[in-house]
Amino acid sequence: MKTASTSRKWLNKYPYDLWQQIGIKILHSLLVGFALLMFGHDLLFTLGHFLHVLVSIIEWGLEHLLEWLFKVSPRQAEIMTFWLGFTMLAGLAWPIPRRAYKVLKNTYSRWLAQPKSDKYMTLIQFLVIGSVLALFS
Fold it and tell me: DSSP letter string over 21-75?
């Protein structure tokens, strides 16, 4: 059974934990940002290569499965795999632009509601970050 003293201890401890979690998230963001700034090109190249190999393995397996399942030639299985993959990609990619539009619209609305000084600070931060990324890319 909880007593009043244990609940007060939890309430007193909670804000510290919340600020500690926020600090850890900020530290992780800074470390990830630094890593991307220093090694972003190599990291993206490696990630792209890994995804290419993964998609190739899945396509290879799907082609052999279609050949075995429907008794088609390897060329027909390649064509079926292409159209199947294209349809899946189009179906998965369809909600992304709609979601991005909603997020940008909401962000822009919130930005317009800010006071003028905050707008200028946001713009200055964006320009500084963009300039640093342009210099190091």
Answer: HHHHHHHHHHHHHHHHHHHHHHHHHHHHHHHHHHHHHHHHHHHHHHHHHH---HH
User: To 10 degrees, what angle do helices 4-70 and 116-136 make?
Assistant: 50
What is the sign, positive or negative, of the torsion defined by CA atoms of 98, 103, 105, 106? positive
Share of the chain above pLDDT 90, in %: 31
If phi > 0 it is left, if psi is from -120 to 50 it is alpha, else beta; for residue 37 that is alpha
CB 23 within 8 A of CB 16: no
pTM value surpassing 0.85: no
- Distance, in Å, from the CA atom of 97 to the CA atom of 105, rounded to the nearest integer, reads 12
Under 8 Å between Cβ of 111 and 122: yes
